[in-house]
Amino acid sequence: MVNVIIDGQKIQVPKNYTVLEAARSANIDIPTLCYLKGINEIGACRICVVEVKGARSLQAACVYPVSEGLEIRTNTPAVREARKVNLELILSNHDRKCLTCVRNRNCELQKLAEDLNVQNIRFEGETYRFPVDDFSPSIVRDPNKCVLCRRCVSVCKNIQTVSVIDAQERGFKTIVASAFNKPLSEVPCTMCGQCIVACPVGALREKDDVDRVWEMLSDETKHVVVQTAPAVRVALGEEFGMPIGTRVTGKMVAALRRIGFAKVFDTDTAADLTIMEEGTELLGRLKEGKNLPLITSCSPGWIKFCEHNYPEFLDNLSSCKSPHEMFGAIIKSYYAEKMGINPADIRVVSVMPCTAKKFESVRPELAATGTPDVDAVITTRELARMIKEAGIDFAALPDESFDNPFGDASGAGVIFGATGGVMEAALRTVAEILAGKPIDSIEYTAVRGVEGIKEAVVELPGRTIRAAVAHGLGNARKLLDRIKAGEAQYDFIEIMGCPGGCVTGGGQPIQPAKVRMDIDLKVARAKAIYDEDKSLPIRKSHENPFIKKLYEEFLGEPCGHKSHELLHTHYTKRTNY
Amino acid sequence: MNGQKCCTFVGTEEQAQKLKEVIEKHKNQKGALIPVLHEAQEIYGYLPLEVQKMISEGLNVPLTEIYGIVTFYTQFSLNPKGKYKISVCLGTACYVKGAGAIIDKIKEKIGIDVGECTEDGKFSLEATRCIGACGLAPVVTINDDVYGRLTVDDVEGILNKY
Fold first, then answer.
1. For labelling alongside A466, which of A45, A106, A271, B96 has CA 20 to 30 A away?
2. One domain, residues B127 and B107
């Protein structure tokens, strides 16, 4: 610990703290823009400047380390003026169409202008106009709103190791873009959307499919059903001012019904189905000793990353479609048959915490019944916008339940939303299949948590499974490189593209840097996921009564002929540039 | 924006081999990228997508990062140089003496922007920092020929010599 004085307050802070962190612990708010904890700490924007006694010029608090006896002043005329000038300069070349910006009222730049009391921009000069890149099915890039903070660049390059955007050119012409200004659709972008949730402004956003969904809903010849991923229910509340980690499952179902969907289904049901298929696939591969380790395939960002960067592992990927795609195929076959509806007249909308799912849904191979398995994907954020547009008072909604014939899913389906969840769900089922009887201990805590790569040796009846879990594509890369180098061997691997898994996916509510300084979203939202799992009467996929019925009535057996037709897919090697 | 304007890339087997050797030579050293880019530009005359891709794969550096460096430093070029390389000095003395108007006139005459090359490959245009001939300001060089104390009206006659 070291002693520092901030604005006259004498405090003790750990010696590895920055001035920004020290001030925060003394409840002194230093404004920031380019800073994003653990992701971008580069002192570039000069909004967080403070006076440091003995220093010749103002210093950036986000990168200035504390030391014994350091004296800092955060509220002096020089500090206030410097922050204001820096902010006004940024604003002078910013496309200030706040009213119609997707980030209106959730914009860190807007908030800064308010907090720093900027009422007049003293600078006028040349402004740049770049074309908006909206060629990707998932992500829209608007350089005219970019403040060059590089938060997106850092997350893409350092956390995801995808590196498809970086600062190009220099000086006034500087732009965050891909090589040769190629659109995101023509570079090895995984569409994970981590750049969007890192962006302080509206320069990166999801491709908006809200209007397309409204259009489907107003077409009376179509039977429009919706399904929601597990991670949506633990984050949607944030869009309506609820605390991070609030579970709103019942209200979400009620809202979807009021929006006008004919049926509201739970993707967790399909997660249970995935476990039946993937668990069987794992047992089969273990028996044959072929294509091991088996690697999960639920995360479309991870899948695209693998296709671009690790084609040698494509045979290791589970051939299972991701849960919402499986569900789409089941809805357009089993459900259509049961309800007597022509599959061509059904529209399946998925609400996902994910932007890569938009890309996934337009993959041509994911169309088991002749039309796409899923017709539209909207993110958690887009659903919130629809709820607002429909004039629904979300907080006042009653709790409602998912529709039959699929009903409620198991807790195993719920935990798909957090890193380690697919692995744990699979182990719960595989263990019982191997034992041939129910097993009481079902919580595999070794695969939970936010450590980047988790390893566990799991003793199952008559069989030891070497398991690994990686989340975030940088960690996936590390893990795969280790396997390639022969340094590690596994039987079963779960990979999720986003750090933390789906709960912190690229389609989730965006929390500002200030909130992320104090709260680890991965932990807070995952806790809600595991609470939901605990609250459910059925916590193993194979015990979901609907799943049993589906195999009896329709599919036959897991990984059987019909399953292969409807629920499994294949992957393609993709070139980079 | 510095897009590629002219000429499809044609590289020889020999050039590719040379580049491979350069990459191999620098591969394991820290900060290998800048020297490799310099030597690659010597081999090819410029740094088009195809060359940057080879470097990206060879050094295991993302193409996006390489492109960022190439567009940051003015000595790297995305476009081939013309048969006649026009350099307009935009150092302080030349600038004060009207180099801005001269460069605008040249752009208008040959129809390209700074950093580009005409479609027939004849002229390329670049703006340089001070070349140390301030007494002759404003100065333009075309390959090794030096033209000093220019006015806008001189431009056409000079270009016609080539």
1. A271
2. yes
B113 in A contact zone (CB under 8 Å): no
Helix H or strand E encompassing A51: strand A49-52
Task: Give the pLDDT confidence of A153-206 residue by residue, as tens digits.
Answer: 999 999 999 999 999 999 999 999 999 999 999 999 999 999 999 999 999 999
Any domain includes B58:
yes
Q: Is there a single domain that holds both residue B91 and residue B153?
A: yes
pLDDT in the model for residue B6: 54
Positive or negative CA dihedral for A422, A423, A425, A429? positive
pLDDT of residue A236: 98
> SS in 3 state form for A281-322?
HHHHHHHHCCCCCEECCCCHHHHHHHHHHCHHHHHHECCECC
Q: What range defines the domain where residue B65 resides?
A: 13-72
A318, two tokens: 């589970």
pLDDT in tens, B83-103: 999 999 999 999 999 999 999
Do B51 and B88 fall into the same domain? no
Choose the mutation target among A157, A168, A174, A178 for the interface with B, i.e. most B CBs under 10 Å.
Answer: A168
Q: Is B90 found in the same domain as B28? A: no
Greater confidence (B122 vs B74) lies with B122
The band of B4, judged by pLDDT with boundaries at 50, 70 and 90, is very low
Q: Is residue B129 part of a domain?
A: yes
Q: Is the pTM of this model over 0.95?
A: no
Residues of A in contact with B37 (CB under 8 A): none
Please report the pLDDT score of residue B7 as a whole number.
61
Second CATH level (architecture) for the domain A211-567: 3-Layer(aba) Sandwich (3.40)
Would residue B79 count as lying in a domain? no
**Chains A & B: contacts with CB separation below 8 Å:** 45
Q: How confident is the model at residue A128 (pLDDT cuts 50, 70, 90)?
A: confident
Top CATH class of A2-91 equals alpha beta
**Which chain A residue is nearest to residue B77, measuring alpha carbons?**
A169
Tokens (6 digits) for A315: 């045979």
* Domains in chain B, number: 2
Q: Which two tokens stand for residue A30?
A: 């230093």
In a domain, B78, yes or no: no
Three-class SS of A138-182: CEEECHHHCCCCCHHHHHHHHHCCCCCCEEECCHHHCEEECHHHC
ipTM: 0.91
Same domain, B129 and B105: yes
Both B68 and B88 in a single domain? no
User: In CATH, what is the architecture of A128-206?
Assistant: 2-Layer Sandwich (3.30)
| Token pair for A79 | 């500090």
Separation in Å, CA A464 to CA A456, A486, A491, A547, B31: 10, 20, 9, 27, 46
Q: Show me where the domains of chain A are located.
A: 2-91, 128-206, 211-567
Our answer to whether residue A494 is catalytic in this structure is no
